[in-house]
């Protein structure tokens, strides 16, 4: 079977170092799955493409068009890679707004690789102070190694250690996916609790 | 098939004039709309229940009784009656009273309410919303079907030897619709009791409504009330009409752009594409409404929202007039031609009485007071004897 990994990247510029990092992680994941003789497909979602639709959805309560498809990709994935720029010491507002639209509970148990970019490496702990608690709240299981890329990582010898971290994180995510196996998701909006049970629950 | 209007009773500033109606204007406008709806042949007027500004609709049975006294045939209903924060004993009493006053022209739609603070204001917790709906309706149902109720639950003081009065007219409780936007538990509840299920429909994509109604229909059949096609379904709709569709779009746009629900969000065009909102000619409203049947199936009740977003009362009245004179005659004919013979109409008081084989009692019964063991006549006689 092919494991479906969705990469959500929230860079705003073109070209974007956030997208660049997302692509590097995706490439590394494919090679990690290859090494283990396992099939993987990666789908890339650029949050920027859905910016206006995200605001609309927050206001009216439901997503439309391509955004609805993107959210379905996310909830239907076997694992996520999330990559956000660092704005004011945390993830970007647009990145958070995208995940605010995810139906509560629908990502429970899903492995995720946390990654971020920032102007300097001084922000790197945002991975663990900001990003990790968010995904813990959403019920995902974040792999131990997060990936933070500062501007300087793209042009100095520090780049080698970035590549090493990406490799480590990719292997961790692959192992999490392979050990979890495929999880059939139930659509909670149509699952039924028989009324007798609902009634019993109410008069406890 | 029944057609009607539903209103939440909001006070919203008209964005084209800056005028905000007073509470009194809004209450009187609601009555005027209901009277016109009755005159032009709509079947249902459904009022909201809200306990926070900018709404004025806190006492639906009071308003409905007043409307009932001034109308002839329109069914008085709600959209919705808050089953979570209203004492089910009060609901049982008030709606039964309304039945008697209006000769059975009453049904009601139960809803949870999604305004967080309303729950604590009435001593409840929004996180118990589903549980409150289930327990409270269980009690309401018993109060209407059982003469003497002994009951104990989680959310209300227990009842011992309680009889809700007046008893439902002709021994038949008002028909109940369970309204929900997105809770499968409520579809399950409606199916279990064989009650109606009303999907708000407006503000949501059709795919969502279709899913909820399919679920209700399947479970209705599961509980043995009939086939899935015979389940009692109602949906909302939202329209703004002009003879000419360009005029409708031009005149409605400022209201859409500033509407409390979707203002500042998606464009009018996007919202018309993604939700049932129809802004155009009466013919467009007819075509769009008929298309609901494609994903809802043959259904029994269609309610339209015509009076929100600060639209002035004369505009709402114009919409009701167009609905009654141009839209409904065609919709009735078309829907009726499409409906298979085994799909029932929405229950009414008359049909429920006929189904129950009940007849109106001609003689009242003087009940004995459980606590004193006396009847009113005896109490009166002994009091007279002491004079």
Report the portion of residues of chain B in β strands. Answer: 5-15%
SSE class of chain A:
alpha/beta
Q: Which word captures the global form of chain B?
A: globular
Major sheet attributes of chain B: 10 strands, parallel
Low-confidence segments of chain B: none
What is the distance, rounded to the nearest whole angstrom, between the alpha carbons of the first and last residues of chain B? 60 Å
Q: How confident overall, as mean pLDDT of chain A?
A: 92
Pair of chains with the largest interface and how many residues each contributes: A-B, 23 and 34 residues
In percent, how much strand structure appears in the residues of chain A?
15-25%
Number of helical elements of chain A: 7
CATH second-level architecture of the largest domain in chain B: Alpha-Beta Barrel
Largest sheet of chain A: 7 strands, mixed
- The CATH topology of the largest domain in chain B, please? TIM Barrel
Quaternary structure classification: heterodimer
What is the helical fraction of chain B, as a range of percent?
40-55%
CATH class of the largest domain in chain B: Alpha Beta
Overall 3D form of chain A = globular
Radius of gyration of chain A (Å): 18 Å
Q: Summarize this, please?
A:
The complex is a heterodimer of chains A (204) and B (387). Chain A is an alpha/beta fold.
């Amino acid at each position: 079977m092919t494991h479906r990994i969705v990469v959500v990247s929230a860079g705003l510029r073109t070209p974007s170092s956030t997208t660049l990092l997302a692509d590097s992680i995706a490439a590394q994941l494919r090679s990690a799955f290859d090494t283990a003789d396992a099939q993987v497909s990666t789908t890339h979602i650029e949050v920027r493409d859905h910016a206006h639709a995200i605001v609309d959805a927050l206001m009216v309560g439901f997503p439309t068009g391509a955004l609805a498809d993107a959210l379905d990709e996310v909830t239907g994935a076997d694992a996520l890679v999330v990559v956000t720029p660092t704005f004011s010491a945390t993830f970007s507002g647009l990145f958070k707004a995208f995940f605010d639209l995810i139906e509560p509970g629908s990502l429970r148990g899903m492995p995720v690789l946390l990654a971020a970019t920032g102007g300097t490496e001084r922000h790197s702990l945002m991975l663990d102070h900001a990003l990790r608690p968010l995904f813990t709240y959403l019920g995902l299981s974040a792999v131990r190694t997060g990936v933070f890329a500062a501007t300087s990582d793209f042009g100095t010898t520090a780049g080698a250690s970035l590549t090493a971290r990406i490799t480590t994180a990719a292997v961790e995510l692959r192992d999490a996916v392979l050990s979890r196996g495929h999880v059939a998701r139930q659509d909670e909006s149509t699952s039924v609790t028989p009324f007798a049970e609902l009634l019993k629950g109410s008069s406890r | 098939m029944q057609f009607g209007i539903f209103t939440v009773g909001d006070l919203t500033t008209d964005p084209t004039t800056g005028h905000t109606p007073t509470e009194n204007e809004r209450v009187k406008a609601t009555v005027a709309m209901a009277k016109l709806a009755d005159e032009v042949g709509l079947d249902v007027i459904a009022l909201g229940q809200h306990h926070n500004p900018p709404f004025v609709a806190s006492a639906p049975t009071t308003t409905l009784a007043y409307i009932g006294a001034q109308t002839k045939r329109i069914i008085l209903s709600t959209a919705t009656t808050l089953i979570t924060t209203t004492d089910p004993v009060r609901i049982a009493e008030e709606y039964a009273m309304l039945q008697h006053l209006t000769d059975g022209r009453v049904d009601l739609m139960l809803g949870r309410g999604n305004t967080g603070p309303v729950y604590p204001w009435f001593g409840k917790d929004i996180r118990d919303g589903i549980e409150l709906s289930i327990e409270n309706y269980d009690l309401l149902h018993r109060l209407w079907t059982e003469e003497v109720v002994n009951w104990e639950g989680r959310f209300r003081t227990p009842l011992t030897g309680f009889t809700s009065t007046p008893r439902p007219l002709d021994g038949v409780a008002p028909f109940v619709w369970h309204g929900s936007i997105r809770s499968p538990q409520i579809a399950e509840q409606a199916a279990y009791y064989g009650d109606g299920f009303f999907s708000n429909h407006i503000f949501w994509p059709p795919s969502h409504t279709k899913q909820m109604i399919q679920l209700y229909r399947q479970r209705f059949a599961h509980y043995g009330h009939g086939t899935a096609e015979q389940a009692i379904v109602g949906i909302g709709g939202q329209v703004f009409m002009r003879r000419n569709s360009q005029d409708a779009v031009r005149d409605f746009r400022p209201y859409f752009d500033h509407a409390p629900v979707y203002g500042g969000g998606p464009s009018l065009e996007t919202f018309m594409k993604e939700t049932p909102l129809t802004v155009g000619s009466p013919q467009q409203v007819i075509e769009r409404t008929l298309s609901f049947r494609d994903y809802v199936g043959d259904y029994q009740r269609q309610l339209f929202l015509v009076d929100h977003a600060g639209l002035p009362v004369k505009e709402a009245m114009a919409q009701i007039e167009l609905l009654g004179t141009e839209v409904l005659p065609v919709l009735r004919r078309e829907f009726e031609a499409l409906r298979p013979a085994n799909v029932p109409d929405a229950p009414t008081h008359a049909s429920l009485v006929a189904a129950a084989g009940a007849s109106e009692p001609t003689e009242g019964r003087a009940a004995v007071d459980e606590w004193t063991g006396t009847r009113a006549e005896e109490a009166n006689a002994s009091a007279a004897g002491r004079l």
